[in-house]
């Protein structure tokens, strides 16, 4: 399993590949006799980097910066800025030159000093040279390899390959990179990454040069404990080294310069991301984010905001507050936070009760820090204590009273509101409904509640009767779920003795009800919900019915024991038929119907349910087959049942990462298109009958998605099939399935089809063009061709 994990993550790592284009040789040196100004640029000897003046925002024509950027990439991407806090207004009358004392200096139009290297040297005949590594150096004109100063020692927000990030123990100098203030303002922001100043072999993320909000964990020799993915990186693509000696402590990484354009960048939002250039998208693509959770970044959303993980807009104002646009929200920096719509009245002790402030309940993942505690007061006393202090903005009561004064920060939305902790946010009275209307509503509500209560009593009575019948006549229960007792489950499964398998969240056992109905009982190991919430969630899942979704018959919830009872599938899971030790040869007709049925089931989850359900774990192990080999998607309810915890487990789960879309790895929002990607990877396996993971044992040229990418445009469909399928295969269907699989695994989720469209394509109702080869498959195909040509020579 560990081997397959490394193998399956390799295609994602190949997103580091980019295609370079040769450029003509240009001047790479600035000197006292040849200053740099206006639109003139320096270009490194190999053409990789350029140095010159640029402006990040066309709407601010008087803000120019001296910067280094990638020269062969169409999108201007500054990797170092000299004067990031002090822009110049006119590059034509400003200049970068070498001063009489041998320093590099940037002078504005008034010849005032804007920036300088500030080195002390007896050699004043120096020049500045931009190197092909992106390093800008100051060196003697006679020996440019002897650096007096280098930009690698003073990074801005980017850490380039080959640059040391660490501390010089002799000089005391520490290299750190710092975020931009906003997308149009490169001045130093709040977030930094640096080596642990206490001497630990790790790196720390800081906010405002003080608060530590994330650590990489200690260095183990091949990875940081907080970044286990490092152990999986192929060394021929990405290599790294942590050095500790008496002179310095530093970390350095390198990429294969002939095939990779990649860098680490400290984002405005406080995450350090590995980004790679994707030529097909003409943009940088995030590959890895640290920390993975955006909401773990300190003060990421500012005051009086809520951070919601995996949301497109992860920061939002609390009720009663509005955005402070001077905080650069529109430029990707929401840390300015939100401000009150109506100021507090501080009327807690006033006889004018209509002007008193009020509170509303807010569910948060955890209570924020910096609370003041009052242990001896009641709930009402806690509320009054907050009202009696004009600086108090919120309170919470959970066995003790907690009060918050001033701005509220670092509020994170829970995965499920019923799982969060409650705190009460203070607002002015005018932010709440009119008291008279409220009283009327309360009277109406009470009357309605009485009627509803009577109805509920009747319904509960009916359900109790049905429940009583269910134990003796389970197969006759329709439209509702059976609530099983734990002892009953022990009896029908013979004390869980006949295990069918072990899934991601627990074991599955076979059972037989008293009337002979066969069942599969899944014991859940990863559900922490209380009994009431579990019942509510399962009841919702139980209403979802589709011929290609496994049917939930009932459940058991007693104390910490949670079980789901499903219909029994006599032909087991799809993976056993495709990859088992004694695999059953499935005909092409059967495989195609399985692929179509899975697509129909996913389309129902995505498009036909009352609320969208993303499965999050599509793979052959989660597709079960009935007696007629009709596919039924299993565990589809766990995505809803386990909420955001499900995604957190998946990202670290071994053996399923090969089906995960790039979104899971680069930390962007997860949509239904993540299921589409997983379906595409599984469809390759259904067509080939082999695990995609097995390619690493034989070489990249045997990776089936690569074979499809290479031969589909050539029309060599027959070559993709083994001899067991060639007899009865429908080549039109094979081509259709291959096209669908390639469309599903496109790098950009917006270009992937919906599951509804996939159903129409597979049914032959809609024709589909040849897809563009997914980028990482294109790279693998190129590498395969190169290896083949090399072997032939």
UniProtKB/TrEMBL annotation:
> Mind naming one GO cellular-component term on file for this protein?
membrane
The protein, known as = Receptor-like serine/threonine-protein kinase
Keyword Manganese listed: no
Extract the InterPro entries matched here.
Bulb-type_lectin_dom, Bulb-type_lectin_dom_sf, Kinase-like_dom_sf, Pan_app, Prot_kinase_dom, Protein_kinase_ATP_BS, S_locus_glycoprot_dom, Ser/Thr_kinase_AS
- Where in this chain does the record put each Bulb-type lectin domain? 27-151
Membrane topology type, per the record? Answer: Single-pass type I membrane protein
| Binding positions for ATP per the UniProt entry | 523
Q: What is its main location?
A: membrane
Which residue intervals define the domain Protein kinase in the entry? 494-776
The species is: Oryza meyeriana var. granulata
